[in-house]
């Protein structure tokens, strides 16, 4: 696949993306930017959310992981389904009842200002790092396919990529995000489906033959119950999936801003049920594609694995050129969906939570708030570009592992704060909350570094998030107010 074809594909995709973004956000005010005026149809949000769950990390890393981990990722996705049900029927009614713009406003109502700011700052750190990791993967692929052949530096790649994200989100915020995510969801599903079709064709497999070949492969094992020390062990993956979903969706301003844009909480629940079922089957398609890609790589002698498998095979000369085009469209659809919504959520949270515009006594008039929001939006884009560039200097791990490892440390305190607030009626000394929230990830890091020595070879995986939340809840119990 030549560089010119890639450039034409990317340019065409962004022309369509910017057109949808402009039409959706052309009349958006601050309420439209932050919560979409709460007028979104549930089925539109469901289509948008379906694509937002699938990031550029999923698009590249999930097919690449099957050689090492089989279909074990489905165990985590099963946990995602349970977690989404808990969000829909516990958190969604609560947030709608409180009429929240930012979900972290709940913490101030429950505990106090320090808790509110702590939750907002941990979200800010979590989302900035997570979104940057995801967009970093796109930059790596673009560097390989476009910028290196043209002799252009990685820094220019990063600046241009983040600028495009900023450009299509600055006008409409959530209103633009929802409709552009609908476009991206459709492109994503079409891309992975057609890639499976073309790769199967090159392997001379009919539909039934493809299913049998995948089922017969050692890479298609789903359940792992044998070794508790194995990171693929079922209960590690399943429980981590439940609490990761609650933390990174239910308590994440990025994901919840779509759900809070529905007309009422029942519509939001419908959206969540439809989107999570679709997410399960889309992840299954990615894993199936991974097996086919490895089979094809062996057949033609391509030496690639992990995150490099899909880009290498899709853009090789062994497959029809349309596969490379579909890969580029799918990658950009998934990656820019995550990055655009993250940039909007970071802008919302920083403006409302950290700068204090969520307080009645600090609220600005509409024009001043618009000016503040636009400055914050630019600042978030610049910071994201800087973080991506640093990741480029430090890159040494599988990207999907990096995302969930980061989530284990940074979302744990948020999960603990909300869980304690919902499950207990106890009041706490609010001024000590920041110390508890910082101490919990530190304790988790110590635990992870010494778990093999302390627990007979046991290695923590993504379930570290659960212990992080438990440490936070324990700390809050210790600083509770006596009756």
Please sum up the structure shown:
With 483 residues, the chain is mainly α.
Structure overview:
- It comes from Prevotella illustrans.
- This protein has 483 residues and is mainly α.
- The protein has 20 helices and no strands.
- The protein is globular.
- 54% of the residues are buried.
Number of strands: 0
Q: For the CA atoms, what is the radius of gyration? A: 22 Å
- Count helical runs: 20
Question: Average pLDDT, to the nearest integer?
Answer: 81
Features:
sodium; ion transport; mainly alpha; 483 residues; membrane; transmembrane helix; transport
SSE inventory with pairings:
Blueprint: H1 3-25, H2 30-35, H3 42-52, H4 56-69, H5 73-97, H6 105-110, H7 113-147, H8 154-169, H9 174-202, H10 207-216, H11 234-250, H12 253-259, H13 265-300, H14 309-314, H15 321-354, H16 366-394, H17 399-410, H18 412-423, H19 433-454, H20 464-478
